[in-house]
Specification:
The structure is a single chain. This protein has about 190 residues and is of the alpha/beta class. It has helices at about 25-35, 55-65, 90-100, 115-130, 145-155; strands spanning about 5-10, 45-50, 70-75, 135-140, 170-175, 180-190. The longest helix has 18 residues, at about 115-130. The radius of gyration is 16 Å and the shape is globular. The protein starts with a strand and ends with a strand. The relative contact order is 0.22. The model has no long low-confidence stretch (mean pLDDT about 95).
Length: about 190
């Protein structure tokens, strides 16, 4: 059996003066992502794919450096577009995120509907799986992207229930590359 590990970036440097899509991984986030280097499964990876956003790419670099692989970037793995609202304080962001998942067919304050974003994500992941060499792969992206993908893989409606659980990222889930069955739900990068 070959598997896909979908990994989310960890903590970021929050900079209200910069677009969210340009934020970097924080030192704490980078340190947390280094925990992946100790996972036994990284040796079986044949490729690593990443969102082209800095916080995800920097997370993928940590993993890639540990196994000596290059990184294939893909804009289809980017986070949902939040440019209409820009930076939001944590409480306001959480409200928006819940609305994004609660009303998946509606544009909420300029954010594209979740169903549109889910189609983008699923199409991107399917293209990766069909075109990549056989073997285990890692996809490094964002929490919202993971939640949309996980809902699709589970055959369920889009829901906040598929979110990584109130954390600031640095989690992963695993699914079977052939059957697309979810094998393991969200776990911290520190968990084996």
């Amino acid at each position: 059996m070959t598997v896909v590990r979908f990994i989310t970036h960890a903590e970021v440097n929050i900079d209200p003066g910069r677009p969210v899509a340009e934020w970097d991984l924080s030192p704490e986030g980078a340190q947390r992502m280094c925990a992946l280097q100790d996972r036994s499964w990284i040796k079986s990876l044949v490729s690593i794919h990443s969102s082209n956003e800095p916080k995800a790419y920097q997370s993928a670099e940590i993993l890639a450096n540990a196994v000596g692989l290059g990184i294939k970037t893909n804009a289809g793995l980017r986070e949902h577009d939040r440019s209409s609202t820009g930076y939001l304080p944590r409480e306001k962001f959480e409200e928006m995120l819940h609305a994004f998942f609660r009303y998946p067919e509606v544009t909420v304050r300029g954010w594209k509907p979740a169903v549109v974003e889910q189609t983008r994500v699923v199409t991107c992941v399917e293209t990766i799986l069909e075109s990549d060499p056989d073997g285990d792969i890692a996809i490094v992206s964002h929490g919202g992207v993971g939640a949309l993908l996980m809902a699709h893989l589970a055959g369920e409606e889009i829901s906040f229930d598929f979110d990584q659980g109130g954390s600031t990222g640095g989690n992963y889930f695993t699914f079977d590359r052939t059957t697309r069955e979810i094998l393991q739900g969200w776990r911290s990068v520190e968990a084996d």
